Amino acid sequence: MTYEGLHSFFYNRVLNFKMSNILIIAKGSYGGILPLYALGQELQKRGHHVTAATFSTQKNTVLSLGFSSIVFDKPSLLSKPHSLKALRFQTAVLLNAAHQADIIIGSYSVLLGRLIAKQAGKPWIYAPSFPLAVCSRYEPCLFPELQMIQRSTALYWPQLQKLYFSIFYYASYLVKVPAVLYQLSLDKAYYKHPLFEGKYSSDLNLLLTSPILVQPQKDWPKSTIVCGFSWFEPSFLGASENLTTLNSFITAGSSPIVFTLGAGSRNNPVAFCQESIRACQKLNVRGIIVAAKKFHAELKSSSEILVTDWLPYDKVFPYAKAVVHSGGIGTIGLCLKYGVPSLLIPVVADQFDNAYRANKLGVAKVIFSQRYQAEEMARLLSELLNDDAKKIQLEKISRKVREENGAQIACDAIEMFIAHLAK
What we know:
Rossmann fold, 13 strands
C-alpha cells in the first residue's frame, strides 16, 4: 500500500476522519505565501478541498495549483492595499468565504484572520513563516523600528529584551489604532492586539520555519509547533528562456555570486547593481544580477556577469559561491538548504531579525544599505568565501535543513486537530 493509501486508511478508519474544506488566506510577500502554497498542496494531496484567498495578481497561480480561488482586492484599492478601506473590503470578502470553510489558515500578514474566524464560528490556525511572528520577551529578537538601538544594547544585555518587547508592543498598538477600532466595530469585546494575540490561535499555531533558527519560548501561545521549512518551487515565476540563459552561463565558467534585488535596492536599483558588479570585479569572480527587465538596458551582461530577470532560486543557488540578498526568510532557508553563505542587507520588517539569527548561527554576514559599496561588499564576501569554519557549519546545517518537511509536519498537526474536532 502506498503512503497515501496508508494515510487515508489510518485517518478514515482509525480516527473516523473526515476530509475538510480549508480556506488558506495567502496574503503578503512570497516568503509568507509560498509556504502556504506548499501546505495547501500537501492538504490537497491528502484529500482535502483547498481554497486560497489572494490578491488578484495571484489568482492564476492559485488555479494552476488546483486550488479554488477567491480574490480579496479590486482595482480601486490596488494603490492603497493597506488602507482601512481596503481592510474593510478584504474582511467582508474573507468573512463570506469563511462561512463556507471548515477551517481557516492564515499567516502574519492576515491582520484580522482570528476575528474573521471567530465571526464565522470556525477554527483559526495561525501559520507564519518567520521567527519574529511569534516573538518572545525572553529571547533576543530585532524589531524593525527598534533594531538600531537593539543592536548596540539588547544583543549584549539580553535582560533589556523585556523592555524593548513592551515598547514595541504598545507603540505598534497605537500605530494600529484604526484597525483596532475596526475590530471593535465588528466585536465590541475584541480588544486583542492585531500584531500579537489578535493573530495567535487558541487551538493551533504552526511556525513554518526551521528549529535551527528558533526554539519554543515559555511565553509563546499554547499549541505552537516549529514545523521546519516548507519547500515550494515557484516555477510560475521563471521564464524558460531565463533558465536556458542561466544554464549556458553556469557551464561556461566558475561558480558565480548571486545578487538578488529585494527591498534593499528598490530606491536605487541601478546603483545597487552597479556596486554589485564592481564588487565582483574586485574579487575577480563571476556574478549573476537578478533585476527587473526595465533596468537591463543600464546593466550590461558579459562573459563574467549575467543580468537576468527573476529565476527560481532552486535552479540557481546550488551553483552559487554566495548569495547577496535582503534576508527574507525563504531566501535564507534556500541558502541553508544548499549550503551557500549569505551576505545580508536587511531593510524592512522581519529581515533585521532574520539576518541577526543567520549571523548568530554562523552562516552569514550582515551589511546595512547605507554601507552597500563595492569595497565593503568585496571585503565581507572575501571573508565569507575564505572562512573554513563557516563552510563546516553550513555543511552541518545544510544536511539537517534538507531533511525538513514543514508542510508534512503542519498537515499532520492539522489533521490531528480535525480528528479532535470530530470527536
